[in-house]
């Protein structure tokens, strides 16, 4: 038993009261779950990472769910060598986990500075530490409040939406999780501090040049299939375009700029213009000085370090662009960390945003509901999926056996 004097009152703290105080402390704890894609850290991780990626129905939508795993195995097997070579060019693995951990540490420190104690958790969708691992830690720590913050500024079915769906399924299946007061932050592309951080990075690179106002600013965003926007109502394209305009407004420079979409895979139509085609067009127009801004990425990883820095640099130089520059990813930029901290504190004060607000939104934003899209019940897919499913599966088997076919032609093999 311990006795302390507080003013004119004498308070005796028993062992039991200490336990009560400890319980109150536990109940007041706040957690922040940072969501991201994940990436292979070693070359031997590439194949299983690709399998996890293509096993996600939000990445590749098939008419029959039993096709998902075989196709994921097929694509991951076929693409392993090429992907391993790409990772070899950037040092043998993705730095995404280390950068995300550094972002989490910086966020925890910033929250403490402004009086908000919080425990930070990291959940990756396709590689370690998986979202499921983060949730296991959250349950072990007996949190009562949780902010779920995707490290994707713009919402997409295939990024934040995919992670939210996994989390929703876990919440529905686990009574212990349902005791947690949680809130989601679906997107934050228009947060002023985020915009200031992006503008600051751009300005720093421009000011290194002799004629900064003559540099053409090239925003490159990760693409998604056009059908996500047109048929599923994915707001990603609208948010990317709005984000680009807001960054340029915050930057307040006279530079011309272009927005394009990278990382296209397969023969289907993705959001346009494609980055490689836009670079070629700018070269034909006589642009010589180009500053690339990775707008949908907050961390350095394969799409920035290899795809932009190596592949697109070659495309630009072949097109006649002689001065190819790139803005670094935000990583732990102080303004960016301040933005994340502000998002967390405001979300704790606001009304909670729950899974049903995001995964079951208004009618014209359908989020690819599983029970319908598995059977192709959309305007376009309803007619074609049933007819093409078996033909496509047979063609896939033939191509596996012969080594020839359209998948080889478009680069999936």
Automatic annotation (TrEMBL):
InterPro entries assigned: Ferrochelatase, Ferrochelatase_AS, Ferrochelatase_C, Ferrochelatase_N
Protein keywords: Cytoplasm, Heme biosynthesis, Iron, Lyase, Metal-binding, Porphyrin biosynthesis
Catalytic activity, EC: 4.98.1.1
HAMAP family: Ferrochelatase
Origin: domain of life: Bacteria
Function: Catalyzes the ferrous insertion into protoporphyrin IX.
Molecular function in Gene Ontology: ferrochelatase activity; metal ion binding
Cell compartments where the protein resides: Cytoplasm
Organism: Crocosphaera subtropica (strain ATCC 51142 / BH68) (Cyanothece sp. (strain ATCC 51142))
Enzyme's top EC category: lyase
Pathway field: Porphyrin-containing compound metabolism; protoheme biosynthesis; protoheme from protoporphyrin-IX: step 1/1
Entry keyword annotation includes rRNA-binding: no
Binding-site positions, Fe(2+): 222, 303
One biological process term in Gene Ontology: heme biosynthetic process
PROSITE patterns, alphabetized: FERROCHELATASE
Catalytic activities: Fe-coproporphyrin III + 2 H(+) = coproporphyrin III + Fe(2+); heme b + 2 H(+) = protoporphyrin IX + Fe(2+)
GO CC aspect terms: cytoplasm
Family per similarity comment: Belongs to the ferrochelatase family.
SUPFAM superfamilies: Chelatase, Chlorophyll a-b binding protein
Protein name (record): Ferrochelatase
């Amino acid at each position: 038993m311990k006795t302390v004097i507080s003013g004119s009152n004498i308070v005796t703290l028993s062992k039991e009261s200490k336990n009560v105080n400890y319980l109150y402390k536990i109940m007041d704890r706040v957690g922040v779950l940072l969501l991201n894609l994940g990436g292979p850290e070693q070359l031997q991780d590439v194949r299983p990472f690709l399998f996890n990626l293509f096993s996600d129905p939000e990445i590749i939508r098939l008419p029959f769910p039993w096709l998902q795993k075989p196709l994921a195995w097929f694509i991951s097997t076929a693409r392993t060598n090429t992907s391993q070579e790409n990772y070899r060019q950037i040092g043998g693995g993705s730095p995404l986990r280390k950068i995300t951990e550094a972002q989490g540490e910086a966020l925890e420190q910033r929250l403490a500075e402004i009086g908000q104690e919080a425990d930070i958790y990291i959940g990756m969708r396709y590689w370690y530490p998986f979202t499921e691992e983060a949730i296991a830690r959250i349950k072990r720590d007996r949190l009562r409040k949780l902010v779920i913050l995707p490290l994707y500024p713009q919402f997409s079915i295939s990024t934040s939406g995919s992670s939210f769906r996994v989390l929703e399924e876990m919440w529905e299946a686990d009574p212990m999780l349902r005791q947690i007061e949680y809130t989601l932050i679906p997107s934050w592309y228009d947060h002023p501090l985020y915009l200031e951080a992006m503008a600051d990075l751009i300005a720093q690179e421009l000011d290194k040049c002799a004629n900064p106002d003559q540099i053409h600013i090239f925003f490159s965003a990760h693409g998604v299939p056009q059908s996500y926007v047109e048929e599923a109502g994915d707001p990603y394209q609208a948010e990317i375009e709005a984000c680009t305009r807001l960054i340029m407004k915050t930057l307040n420079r006279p530079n011309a700029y272009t927005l394009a979409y990278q990382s296209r895979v397969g023969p289907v139509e993705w959001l346009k213009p494609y980055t490689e085609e836009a670079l070629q067009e700018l070269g034909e127009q006589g642009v010589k000085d180009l500053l690339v801004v990775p707008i949908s990425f907050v961390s350095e990883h394969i799409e920035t370090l290899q795809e932009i820095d190596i592949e697109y640099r070659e495309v630009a130089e072949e097109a006649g662009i002689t001065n190819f520059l790139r803005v670094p990813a935000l990583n732990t930029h102080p303004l960016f960390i301040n933005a994340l901290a502000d998002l967390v504190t405001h979300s704790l004060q606001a009304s909670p945003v729950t899974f049903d607000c995001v995964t079951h939104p208004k009618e014209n934003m359908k989020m690819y509901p599983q029970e319908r899209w598995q059977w192709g019940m959309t305007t376009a897919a309803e007619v074609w999926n049933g007819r093409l499913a078996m033909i496509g599966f047979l063609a896939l088997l033939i191509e596996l056996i012969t080594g020839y076919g359209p998948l080889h032609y478009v680069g999936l093999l």
